[in-house]
């Protein structure tokens, strides 16, 4: 028994040379029906480790029978991947207008409320699911045809969302600047957090802030909440979506990619996507916090900084996070300054450059964290 | 009788050399009390004509007695002004993270609703105004002291908002890419549109979208709407705020700056800020549209483009706006393509480069426009 | 009688998505033998008018019989064309390392001297020409195969030079920042300057400074000088190469492109490339200067600038070129400063942004100019 | 006995806000006369470790008596330090025109030859040294006064060169992209290579290629060679200049900075600048190669790359340096490709991003290296 395999290209933009820019799409179709999985990587151009993860997933899925379908879209932003500014990749936003490449997905809460009202009492969960999915996909198709056109990032995002909204399990592979591995998990899917081999978990509420994971799970979570209320019993669609941060941007590691691929396969196995697989999540310490307790530490000063606290380390209140150098004060006691932890915390990522202006996101930290 | 004059500098950031970055503040104080005016320019670094306008305003206010106070802050973004990317100024957003320099102002609708409820029936309009102003300013001060810090653009914005929220009339001087002069006017202040010498007017609703004019007028408009409802009679605070687009970015003209300064003085005179001035708005054709009819035309294609329709021209449906060249098709009939107007419109601005990707904001256009 | 037409693509690079980047090549081959012509445009990505010129040339060459061959390579730098930094195109240099896209061509003077010594007394000019051409082309091919690899810009340049060095007449189409039309002409080919319809001519010496025109004519000029000395009579290869600056960067004009195409066809006709054509250069005023008198005016100050002198205007000593605004001095007599012409001059181009640091190339000017 | 200490600021540019940009200068003057030392850091804005080194040197020189004078200029490029392009610092070149910030120093070989001819037979070495120094400094001063102005990078460079050319020992502190510590040593000063604690040494010839070390030592080396010839005996000026590469750009480490400061103090002690110091170079393995054998490996392909060989490792011919991923081929045997060492080598630095275009400087490597 083996999977069917297809490879396609989707045109998502055209460059100034008048040439199409496309993204590769790798599709595995199992012999038996089952859930649909959608995995993309590198929507932010400098966040490239996910491409290695997808490479390993493809090698594995050539051997591993699945039920349902797995779609893999590596390097899903051909514009962002190819914008260099100096030696690094300026991949987080459109250099023309600053638009974050991960903020143009469609979401409209009022529309979900209307849809919830349209649901008949006797409509089954699969029927509702299929009808809702179709409605969103119709809107996406319509938006892509808008007669005045749409922006570059938005077109890219909607094209990808067309694929993602068709899926039951959506994984968006990212990287932090200098970062330990972490994952964004919707609060209602907290149980799935331990199906991955990822040590740091951010539990996020049902609030759309623009990213693909939210654009995917918020509609379903909102809808199931409304319908559960209406029907006075739990309605569940079983759709989940996550943003996985696979370490640091601007580097790839084939060895780490294999670990990451295993982590994802563990999740897919737990969700019934794999046939006769013995891949299970590792026993490991997993620490979580709620999004509101995932704090950004901004600098008050400009200068040059040594990052003393490493991503993933447990830091006690009062311990130093960073040491700042001020080149105008090298002969005075103000030459250096320690930046201390205001409370117990785990730095998850830090800024990737030693040179900072005031108001720089120095660290993002878990506070009030707990074990899962 | 003459005005008092003061010059100060406000620190808004610190750079990687550890040095303060500040903005100049020019303040004229009339002998008699009167309204407060706040005018800033170049929050977007490449939009520099406003600096020339403020130069002319300063020359005029040295001679022209005022009542109340006029604060002028040219070049209000010392970071954005000084970021070159190639020969041009990358001034619309923070190059680190893509944050638009004009989107970090504070606004919280729920807070206004709470405040409205706190208003006593016998509280006078000046009392309410003073108390509300103080409350917002307290919040701004508090946000600037946030123990985890705040972002660079947000700090800059809040520092400027501290000045702006103290004023009755706020003018934020911008430029479009390649652009004719136009102004954003809150719908409730439509009558003021004809007090400026600006031919194109966009009427905007009471909806905060991040800019300084909205951060200024939305709180007052919301509050006066709530209180008018409550008191069953019109409550008016007389606060107005506008974004003025003084032509194209990346160019300055001293002659045009004098015209623009006159336009602003006409408005200030109409609002009672000037003493014994005979500056009145010009008799001229002014065309307006509602924000929802101010349409962006995005390109479907990438290529090289000649902008045939000039900003300010009236274009009929079906007339050409632009002509596109595709370098891969120079020998075929697809070498060039005309982009036509979908309806009667006035292009207000267009993209400043001939080289475009698909999804570029080619033109912004007035549709369904009318004369004021 | 008509020309044969072919279209090809040449791979010049591969991007981070692992995809080939290629340039289109349009080739017209006449029924009769004759000189070879090579024309490229947009080696600097923001300099796009040449693409329109090539578009018009292609339309004309469909009708106009030629002898020999004309190769047209529009948009010859697919990397540079597609790098946006803000709304503009960062096309002059590789964003990774600052390498000018027009400085990687091959030139080696000692090699020409060696070749000159290898020439037999009885070797005919066509024989010498063919042998020298082959030798350079062999070196180019070898360099492209260098086992340690070569840089991105250099590979692009050598690939184009392979085409150019095969030609007798080479035209490299550029634009200035904000610029009037001008042309770089090797001193020995001064007679050809009046075959184009270009009002401003820079006469350049036999010194390689990195550009394609120099990489083309310097070897031939050097060789014919050496051989003329050796043989005690004029040896001429008839090879000419020019850089044509077709107005300002970042804009295209189809109307101007037709004028520019006519200008080039006049030259080609004068050189015997066209069959039975009646295209001749216009009678017009042409002003020239030597390269050493083509002066760059750098600013001593930073600030915002209005460009008072327009490209192409004749400016007398002491007349104002530009007016500078200093935002820190708006209340003092130092608010503005005039920058004056140090001698009689013609500004040919100026910087395209109003915001300048000290040390900016404000203007490039003809001094000690004369009529041709 | 203790040193005198002074702190100054030198204006090197003015920004678009019209404000001066300056560099700090820390000066220690010993009680006794002795050699002059000039140390600068961060001429390339992202190469910041040298600032930490200078911080440590200042702490040490507060205690350690010197003879002569030590001038320290950290963060010597206030423009380059403050240009962000994305999260990283675009510090190697002027973003306006691509000019490398370390290539605008003055050097003119013909002038040195003229000077050599002017030297009288009885002129003493100190006299020659003083007169030559003065002549170069006069030219630098003149160039800075050029009536048509000079470019931003050139002004910065000449201002720094005025300080450097006055010194006997010049150290220019840099960083590589991802790099091990290495040093550029002029061939004639090879003996000094072992006075530093730096494991990798590049021996460079007497050829000016634009950098500060060359601008400093080439004139003296050329002059002493000419005079030694003339006088038929060794003339030595004792001037040395080095570029020190203190590890990787975009990071600082206070601990490593202390090591680097020690390394520099060892050299200064060996050169007689320190009084009663017991700082001596470490016993360590030092490997050197000639500049011609310091090879750049360029990629032939674009894609994503894992850097397998670490800077400083000894790699044998045929061993893998890097592994490339091609996202369009993830299902085929072409998904990955190994890049192998063509000969025995030591990678000294590699490109800092995983995303590369073809023609990227992947590695710089020592070949044909030997122990010192």
Automatic annotation (TrEMBL), chains A, B, C, D:
Descriptive protein name: Succinylglutamate desuccinylase/Aspartoacylase catalytic domain-containing protein
Single GO term (MF): hydrolase activity, acting on ester bonds
Keyword vocabulary terms for this entry: Hydrolase, Metal-binding, Zinc
InterPro entries: AstE_AspA_cat, N-alpha-Ac-DABA_deacetylase
Record-annotated Succinylglutamate desuccinylase/Aspartoacylase catalytic domain positions: 33-268
Listed SUPFAM superfamilies: Zn-dependent exopeptidases (SSF53187)
One Pfam family, short name: AstE_AspA_cat
Cofactor: Zn(2+)
